[in-house]
Amino acid sequence: MVDVDSFIEEKIEEIATEVGDANAVIALSGGVDSSTAAALAYEAIGDQLTPVYVDTGLMRKGETEQIRETFDYMDSLRIVEAKDRFLDALSGITDPEEKRHAIGEQFIREFETVAREVDADYLVQGTIYPDRIESEGTIKSHHNVGGLPDVVDFEGIVEPMRDLYKDEVREVARDLDLEAIIAERMPFPGPGLAVRIIGEVTEEKLGVAREANHVVEEELEDHDPWQALAAVIGKATGVKGDNRVHGWVVAVRSVESRDGMTARAQNVDWETLQRIQSRITGENENVARVLYDVTHKPPATIEYE
């Protein structure tokens, strides 16, 4: 395990040295990785840092409001409304890797726009070790590693946590006194709900995925999963009232893990699963059925795309 105090001291010095007198933007998503990177960078360079939260339209329910509340102490926080640009970039794309690359490129373009406005030369990211392993090993591209475009308009990209696993990041977050809602929050993919939707991303599918994920996170909170999620995986027939419907199929997944490199499907009791399916199908008239995924990693990945 990492020596947290030494790590924090070392990384603050590294960031300050690398950025120097220049300005930097930090890609802030609200997850523990980017939030911890933001806290480290803010300690290192203070007002030279502009935290940028991009509302892609692919985020969890209430995410933007949570960001405003948690990081209101950073006066330079920018919230960029970019939903339409991301949905345009994803239009017609069904391949998972193409989705990740489209999202990665759009993220960079959003950060470049803000960087020009604040005269920033550096981009700080919350990349962690599993992101690099999975991208370099071609398991999947992460939007902040393998999903980056070939040409990036920054003098440098700073990744203070690139050698840490998720559990080590949480230790650093606690030591930096980040709120528990951030430090203990379960992982959420950088490309957001786009990788919890099989096939093309549409507003309808996003609405279903967002509400279903909210239900799953609420209902499984006491089960303490490493990660729990819901994915829209296709359509199937069902019956609602006296009518036959052709509605969405939602897969629920909950896993136990230490670092995300391997994971085991969680043994969730039948009563809880029934409550989840009842809420998801009852609260969304377009959902026909709910499934529970019992596959471990490997052979499956945690996310669906």
Automatic annotation (TrEMBL):
Its EC number is 6.3.5.2. InterPro entries: GMP_synth_C (IPR001674), GMP_synthase_B (IPR026598), GMPS_ATP_PPase_dom (IPR025777), NAD/GMP_synthase (IPR022310), Rossmann-like_a/b/a_fold (IPR014729). Keywords: ATP-binding, GMP biosynthesis, Ligase, Nucleotide-binding, Purine biosynthesis. Pathway: Purine metabolism; GMP biosynthesis; GMP from XMP (L-Gln route): step 1/1. It is an enzyme of class 6 (ligase). It catalyses: XMP + L-glutamine + ATP + H2O = GMP + L-glutamate + AMP + diphosphate + 2 H(+). GO terms for molecular function: ATP binding; GMP synthase activity. GO terms for cellular component: cytosol. ATP binds at S29, G30, G31, V32, D33, S34, S35. Residues 2-185 form the GMPS ATP-PPase domain. Pfam families: GMP_synt_C (PF00958), NAD_synthase (PF02540). Heterodimer composed of a glutamine amidotransferase subunit (A) and a GMP-binding subunit (B). Catalyzes the synthesis of GMP from XMP. This is GMP synthase [glutamine-hydrolyzing] subunit B.
